[in-house]
Amino acid sequence: MDCAVKIVDGIHWVGANDRETDLFENMWPLPKGVAYNSYLVQGQKTALIDTIKTVSGPPFLLKVRELLGGRKLDYLVVNHVEPDHSGILNVVREVFPGVEILGNKKTAEFLLHLHQVKDGLRVVADGETLDLGGHTLGFHLVPMVHWPETMATFEHEHGVLFSCDAFGAFGALDGGLFDDEIDVDAAEGEMLRYYANIVGRYSVMVQKALQKLAGLPVRIIAPSHGPVWRRDPAKVIERYRRWSHWEAEPGVALCYASMYGNVRKMMEAVAEGLMAGGERRLAVHDVSRAHLSFMLRDAWRYQVVLLGSPAYDTLLHPLMAHLVDLFERKGLKNRLLGVFGSYGWSGGGVRALEEFAGRSGWELIAPPVEARFQPTGEVLEACRALGRAAAARLRAQTGPLTH
Ligand code: FEO
What Rg value do the Cα atoms of the chain yield, rounded? Predict the structure, then answer.
């Protein structure tokens, strides 16, 4: 989507799609690209809310200039300094001379070191408002969502919350900006992947931010990535409340590592047990093929996480170790866990998964299952029992599936 899009009178989306960058933060895959959202607010005075990464700079500037129609850009609100939102900040300053940057004390500190901004910046206080004439902007600090300087800007007259990373999603905008004109199910998956991988570690701060913003009469949520949410903003806020409290949906994330197919066979038996137990909501991932970001997303989504790994170098398989490390780094809590795996001449894999259970506080729902080299019929039956146990725990809490 290259064109400017009107959100309400006097407010336009002027962001950019990025379909060339493969890895967000040079780490997280972008199979559907990503959008950097920026918004132009025009009253008697004009303000740009955030900018974009350096990619697509010229079309972005053209859009802003065309909408301004020769008017001056008075303010640039920096909700977040991370380069995906401030990448072309100095270009904006050059193209729109005299533009005043608005940010908080931390914003000033970060901009000095990241973009060498030494002047032209006004520090705003938490809760301060700015009357543009027809549009009043309120600035609300939401630290650690997702950097210490992050703030959300609220436009009072139309109830538009420029929420920055909060409520954002991976994925470019495929011709539609609003949630009521796109495939929201696909967007929700990429929203959760963004949350789990980028914001999730700071879930306690997200809870605080949601409490802080709760009094605002939000009618439209305009984040810095992905769709603009206008159909039912309360539902979107509730989604964030659940994710930030590590509340899960019924279902299973089943992630496994396998070198010679033995743990894979065990995984197949676990999956058979799940299906036999009536559980249909299952996401299976091979850690050697799927990217960790998708596994973290599904672990954040589902109540049960089942992990299978062989021993490797007398330790956990390195890629499974990476996944477990990611779970711990991101602070995912309150999951039900099942573990299984194999060893040949030394153990280590399953033992490491049990140690992870102890550290994470996740509840082990069944005894670990371990095979020596090839899983025997008995071991495979134990794997099926693990799957049935997981299904039973989910059924106990939610009742049988009706579809
Ligand atoms: Fe979208 Fe924290 O940057």
Answer: 24
